[in-house]
Amino acid sequence: QVRLVESGGGLVQAGGSLRLSCVASGSIFSINDMGWYRQAAGKQRELVAFLTSGGSTNYADSVKGRFTISRDNAKKTVYLQMNNLKPEDTAVYYCALYAPSRVYWGQGTQVTVSS
Hints:
Number of helices: 0
Low-confidence stretches: none
Mean pLDDT: 97
Distance between the termini: 40 Å
């Protein structure tokens, strides 16, 4: 029922920027907390940014000051603005929707930062 469709990933040079988008369907959305996660090759999946339905945010220390999570409830979309990208940001990025009974995941989008 709940579907998350991501876009915006790709290849970018170090120091560049990307904006990831995740459009939700099958959910009220405005009442859901949302998150962005990433998983680098050979690494555990980690929480990058978190945004509650009330607008509170949290970021991993590694991305503070560089990444911004935001949402547009009318469009049922959550964004991750990524600035000053570093090679260590290279990973598959996933959006997550927190429903009452479970977490729904997007398909993942590859972000590759070249040096």
